[in-house]
Amino acid sequence: MSARLLDADWRSACGELAAGECPHWLDDDSEEQHGATVALDDGAGLCARDVGVRAGSRHLLQGVGLRLAPGEVGAILGPNGAGKSTLLSVLAGLRAPDSGHVTLNGQAVTPALVHRLARHRAVLPQETAVAFDFCVHEVVALGRYPHHLQPSRDEAGIVQAAMQATGVAALAERHVGSLSGGERARVQLARVMAQIWEPLADGAPRWLLLDEPTAALDLRHQHETLATVQRWAREQGVGVLAVLHDPNLALRYADRAWVLDGGVLQASGPPARVLRPALLQRVWQVQASTVRAADGVPQLLIAASVPPTPGKDNNT
Whole-angstrom Cα distance, residue 19 to residue 41? Predict the structure, then answer.
């Protein structure tokens, strides 16, 4: 099947090629063309050290560090414009940092080497559009393209299993153009899960990077989606990193959280320790109080901060 996704990760897997060109990572001589992999000492995790990104004179990220282990679920949070998507793109190898570096499974992550990641790292960007009106199962099957030189014995079964995992199997024959925004989002999640569905022969950890995966979803599907990837992390050892806007989802499903504001890391650690009312007031300018859900998970009751009343002493 010949197809093109209007998707930064798909273009990265194909080496940022123009339409119709052959991905160089499918060529036997790709290793010689792009040099040897640079080995670093950050082990099997996803690691960022002192990452900085500029746009002209403006700093999008400054000195950001991050470490996520295989089998963990991480959440990146922050207000609009905080640098969350920029950080995820650097971690995915889709954008080179101006300072610092990123490693994945102990190897340097750079745009020049990103073609090598497609078999064990999948990225779901915020906006994903399909260039043609494919059926759902065809879109999910596109996730298997990085494996087509060494396909699984059950490619069709992987596509079916990924659709089942994201609740879109019943939509398999529907054209993606006929779906709701939330349905399309779950189809794209199935695609990236299919991309890294099976463990690799060399045992290298697999990674799933998701940019606002719950943005288009209703409440039920927000929880089902994050419960699915959390279960995948626990059972399969997949490292999952998601950009989220809802701190309560991070509190329930994430093992680690990183909070950005103005491109600077404000706090990091276990979500229950990081996502406290004082931090929400400082970063998001909202009032919050912590409660316990029936299952013991801490959750936040959030309300807009009351603006100061002109002419009134607001300290009394």
Answer: 37
Close Cβ partners of 300 (under 8 Å, ≥ 6 residues apart): 247, 248, 251, 275, 277, 280, 288, 289, 290, 291
* Pair 179, 293 in one domain: no
Q: Are residues 92 and 111 in the same domain?
A: yes
Last residue of a domain, one of 259, 275, 291: 275
Statement to judge: residues 128 and 167 lie in one domain: yes
| Cβ–Cβ under 8 Å, residues 205 and 120 | yes
Torsion of Cα atoms, 290 then 260 then 63 then 118, to 10°: 110
For residue 39, give the amino acid letter: A
Q: Is the separation of the CB atoms in 105 and 44 below 8 Å?
A: yes
Residue 155, Cβ density class (10 Å: 0-12 exposed, 13-18 middle, ≥19 buried) = middle
For residues 215 and 303, state if they share a domain: no
| CATH number of the domain to which 74 belongs | 3.40.50.300
φ, ψ dihedrals at 123, nearest 5°: -125, 130
Q: Average pLDDT by consecutive 10-residue portion of the chain (316 residues)?
A: 41 38 34 34 83 96 97 98 97 96 93 87 86 90 94 96 97 95 96 96 94 96 97 97 98 98 98 97 97 97 76 50
